[in-house]
Specification:
With 461 residues, the protein is α/β, with parallel strands linked by helices. The chain has two domains: 203 residues, Aspartate Aminotransferase, domain 1 (Alpha-Beta Complex), CATH 3.90.1150; 247 residues, Aspartate Aminotransferase, domain 2. Helices cover 35% and strands 15% of the residues. It has an eight-stranded mixed beta sheet, sandwiched between helices. Strands 1-2-3-16 form a four-stranded mixed beta sheet. Helix 3 runs antiparallel to helix 11, helix 12 packs parallel to helix 14 and helix 13 crosses helix 14. The longest helix has 22 residues.
């Protein structure tokens, strides 16, 4: 079985790039755990990208994390730039978060009833966020977005939603759709099990295309409840939008009495304490947040004006509930984390560090004439094997370049650097990444780029 797995995931006899550092890292224990996991879970994982289908080797089973480091079941140590997909902005096992969690655990895990910790975290958020007046805690970013969509529909009395091709908003039925053919299309289901009737209420348009948005409002006049967009689209590459385009979305929704929803599950409290809303100086009607507000614990939230949130049950007719909403352990972790984030100069220091890191990598790639760009906003970055100066839409991504990322990912793992196992995923710099680790990472990236372009040559234009 293990031999079959190795062959299926790039460990067989087929020609593969050399690491330039000797043999590949040992994955024996991870491979054994993965073989066992396939007896229990579909594909052996509990979330698809973890299966390492887009990169070499079997999935790594992580044993522990501390600071900016991860250790897997085989004892391999990595400098981590995945950061649990973003929320670990302070790094792994941050002492103040751990202490607050342990203190709360001693009092109980869950009550299904209000606690003072909910008030404390809500106050911490709302007193430092100009864009929302009331908030509702839920258990995940997907749940936050699902609830925001329901609120928009309930408030406006309309059913249709505009989303953008290349934006991901969790796996709820009405948003798990892709674009059809044509400028303005109803969504087509991108997963089995999503009824066509659900997808028909979602209109999918290209990113960065004002004409398409205008055409959608003209075609479905009086039927559109809201536009939803990621604060910065970062689930399909890092598709940084122009400030003017986001202000256009704000203007056209107001013109048509629709709502604007910012999905800030990735960008909230990551670009700054007020997220993309402040970064672009746009005031959305509803904002959703994710695990960063719980220090990495399972939590999400959505917020809006007091008037709009007044439509949520028990005040209003839009129903949403959850036994684990406001879970005390998650609230405690969030209080500890956000208290650090609101301190003076936290984001300035973090973003400056990320900018210097990215700039050094780009200088090296440019000097070598490598077809390679690093896109960055705040402490979020994305490695792309391209010569394009800007990528605003998913259609701008060269999907053939993912073969280069696959080789690059392997080279970096062999040099002790951990990135997300897909070339479409972004990376994150955390406060725990010191100058020492960033210098080590830069050297590993330089060596890995050299090896990838030496063995694979330049990508075809």
């Amino acid at each position: 079985m293990l031999d079959a797995l190795k062959k299926a995931f790039g460990g067989g006899d087929e020609p593969q790039p050399s690491s330039g550092k000797g043999n590949d890292i040992t994955r024996e224990k991870s491979a054994e755990l993965y073989e066992k996991a396939q007896r229990y879970f579909p594909g052996g994982v509990n979330s698809p990208v973890r299966a390492f289908k887009s990169v070499h080797g079997t999935p790594l089973f992580i044993e522990r994390g501390d600071g900016c480091y991860l250790w897997d079941a085989d004892g391999n140590q990595f400098i981590d730039f995945c950061c649990s997909w973003g929320p670990l902005i302070l790094g792994h096992n941050y002492p103040k978060i751990r202490e607050k969690v342990v203190q709360t655990l001693e009092k109980g895990l869950s009550f299904g009833a209000p606690t003072a910790l909910e008030n404390e975290l809500a106050e911490l958020i709302l007193e430092h966020n100009r864009y929302i007046e009331k908030i509702r805690f839920v258990s995940s970013g997907t749940e936050a977005v699902m609830s925001a969509i329901r609120l928009a529909r309930g408030y406006t009395g309309r059913d249709k939603i505009i989303k953008f091709e290349g934006c991901y908003h969790g796996h709820s039925d009405s948003l798990l759709v892709k674009a059809g053919s044509g400028l303005v299309t109803f969504g087509e289901t991108s997963s089995a099990g999503v009824p066509k009737a659900f997808a028909d209420e979602t209109i999918v348009v290209p990113l960065n295309d004002r004409r398409a948005v205008g055409a959608a409002f003209d075609q479905f006049e009086g039927q559109i409840a809201a536009i939803i967009i990621e604060g910065v689209p970062a689930n399909n590459g890092l598709l940084i939008q122009d400030r003017e385009y986001l202000h256009f979305l704000r203007d056209i929704t107001r013109q048509h009495k629709a709502l604007l929803i910012f999905d800030e599950v990735i960008t909230g409290f990551r670009l700054g304490f007020e997220g993309a809303a402040a970064h672009y100086d746009v005031h959305p009607d509803i904002i959703t947040y994710g695990k960063i507000i719980g220090g990495g614990m399972p939590v999400g939230a959505y917020g809006a004006s007091a008037e709009l949130m007044g439509h949520i049950s028990p005040e209003g007719a839009v129903y949403q509930a959850g036994t684990l909403s406001g879970n005390p352990v998650a609230m405690a972790a969030g209080i500890a984390q956000l208290t650090v984030l609101k301190s003076n100069h936290f984001y300035k220091n973090l973003n400056t560090k990320a900018t210097e890191f990215v700039a050094a990598i780009q200088r090296y790639a440019t000097a070598k004439n490598y077809r390679f760009k690093v896109f960055q906003i705040g402490s979020i970055f994305w490695f792309a094997f391209t010569d394009k100066e800007a990528i605003h839409a998913a259609s701008d991504i060269d999907h053939g370049s993912m073969d280069y990322y696959k080789a690059f990912h392997r080279e970096l793992l062999n040099r002790g650097v951990y990135l997300g196992p897909s070339g479409y995923e972004v990376g994150f710099v955390s406060a725990a990444h010191t100058k020492v680790e960033l210098e080590k990472t830069k050297r590993a990236i330089f060596e890995s780029l050299d090896e990838v372009f030496r063995t694979m040559g330049a990508p075809k234009s």
